[in-house]
Write a structure and sequence with these properties.
Elements lengths: L1 H22 L5 E6 L6 E6 L5 E5 L8 H12 L7 E5 L4 E5 L6 H4 L5 H17 L11 H19 L6 H20 L2 E4 L8 E2 L6 E2 L6 E4 L2 H7 L8 H17 L7 H28 L10 H11 L7 H19 L2
Helix pairs in contact: 4-7, 4-8, 5-9, 6-9, 6-11, 7-9, 8-9, 9-10
Length: 337
C-alpha cells in the first residue's frame, strides 16, 4: 500500500510538471475532470490561456498509442473528435482541447432531442463510412459469447441468486444464440460500441465523439440502437422507432449497407436486446467485483427496454418467460425490506 501511494504521488508530480511545460504556464494547476476511464485519467488545467484537458495514460498500464491512432482515423473521416495540442507518447501524456463540462446526455430534453439526435446521426454516419483498418478487432463470436456469459454469471447468478434448471438454461442459450446469429449476419462497419449521449459533447461543429478507443469492425445496427437506447437516458419507444427510421433513411442515402427498414428494425431491436443483457451483467459485475454501485439503480431501465420490444418477437419468447417468471420475482424479493 505504501509503495502504491508513493507511485501515485510520483505520477501526480510528473503529470503536473509535464503539463506546466506543455502549457507554458509554470503556475498551472490540475483538477480531476472525469472518472471511469479505465487506467487513463483526465485533468482540467487552471491558469493562463484558458482551460485544457490533460490525459494521463500510464504506459505500463494503458498505451496511449491506440487512442491516438483511432482519434486520427476518425478525424480523417470527418468525425468531430478532441484536438490534440501537445503530446508525450513515451510517458503517456496528452494535452487536449477542453470540450466543456456537460455531455449531450446532460443537455438533452424532450424539446431539443430531435435536433441533437439529427446531429449525432451525422457524426455516426461519418464514423460508419470509414473503412475499418486491417487488423482491427472484430465484434464477433468471441465477444458475443463473453457478453452472454456476463448476463448469466453476474446478473442472474450473482445479483439475483437465480440458478436456471436445465430446460431454462437451454431456452436462454437458444435465445442468445439467435441474438448472436443475427448480430453476425449484419453488414459490418466501423463500430464505436458506446455511441451514446454520455460519450458525445455538445460542440460546434459536433457533437464531438469521446471514448472511441475500443472501436471494432461490427454490426451496422449496434451504434444506432446504442444512441437511442442509452444506458442512462430513456425515451418513449415510438420516438426511438422514429429516430431509428431517420437514421435508416440517412444511412441509405449515404450508401451505407443497411437492409430494408423492416429488417433493420428487427436487427436494431435484437442488437439492443443483446446489449441490454450484457449491460445488466456489467452493472452487476461493477457492483460486486469493483465496488462501483452507482450503476445498479439503472437496472430497471434495461428491464423496461426488454419489456418494450420482446413482445414483438415470438422467436425470443423464452426471454420473456425468464423475465416474467424468474427475474421480476427475484428483483421484487431483493427489493423487499
Amino acid at each position: 500500500m505504501i509503495d502504491s501511494i508513493q507511485d501515485s504521488s510520483g505520477r501526480d508530480a510528473q503529470r503536473l510538471d509535464w503539463a506546466r511545460g506543455a502549457l507554458g504556464d509554470p503556475h498551472a494547476t490540475l483538477e480531476r475532470a472525469s472518472v471511469d476511464a479505465g487506467f487513463r485519467s483526465y485533468w482540467r488545467s487552471r491558469g493562463h490561456g484558458g482551460s485544457r484537458i490533460v490525459m494521463d495514460s500510464p504506459p505500463a498500464l494503458e498505451d496511449v498509442g491506440p487512442w491516438l491512432a483511432m482519434r486520427d482515423l476518425l478525424e480523417s473521416g470527418g468525425v468531430r473528435v478532441p484536438q490534440v495540442l501537445a503530446r508525450d507518447v513515451d510517458n503517456g501524456f496528452l494535452v487536449l482541447e477542453d470540450l466543456g463540462g456537460p455531455t449531450l446526455a446532460q443537455m438533452m430534453d424532450a424539446e431539443n432531442a430531435d435536433a441533437w439526435f439529427d446531429a449525432a446521426i451525422g457524426q455516426l454516419l461519418r464514423l460508419q463510412a470509414i473503412a475499418p483498418p486491417a487488423g482491427m478487432g472484430e465484434f464477433g463470436e468471441a465477444l458475443l459469447q463473453r457478453d452472454a456469459g456476463l448476463f448469466d454469471e453476474w446478473f442472474l447468478q450473482r445479483h439475483l441468486g437465480i440458478t436456471l434448471d436445465c430446460g431454462e438454461s437451454d431456452e436462454l442459450e437458444l435465445a442468445q444464440r439467435r441474438l448472436m446469429d443475427n448480430a453476425l449476419s449484419q453488414a459490418r462497419v466501423l463500430t464505436h460500441r458506446d455511441f451514446m449521449p454520455r460519450n458525445l459533447m455538445p460542440t460546434t461543429p459536433g457533437p464531438a465523439v469521446l471514448d472511441f478507443q475500443d472501436c471494432v469492425r461490427g454490426p451496422i445496427a449496434y451504434d444506432a440502437v446504442s444512441l437511442f437506447k442509452d444506458a442512462f437516458l430513456s425515451w418513449p419507444l415510438a420516438r426511438v422507432d422514429e429516430w431509428l427510421s431517420r437514421y435508416h433513411q440517412r444511412a441509405q442515402d449515404a450508401g451505407l449497407p443497411v437492409p430494408s427498414w423492416e429488417t433493420f428494425l428487427r436487427d436494431a431491436d435484437w442488437m439492443g436486446i443483446q446489449r441490454h443483457l450484457k449491460i445488466l451483467g456489467i452493472f452487476a459485475r461493477l457492483h460486486y467485483r469493483d465496488g462501483k454501485s452507482k450503476y445498479l439503480p439503472d437496472v430497471p431501465r434495461f428491464i423496461d427496454y426488454l419489456d418494450e420490444v420482446l413482445p414483438r418477437y415470438p422467436q425470443l419468447a423464452a426471454l420473456q418467460r425468464l423475465l416474467d417468471g424468474r427475474i421480476r420475482p427475484a428483483m421484487r424479493s431483493k427489493a423487499a425490506p
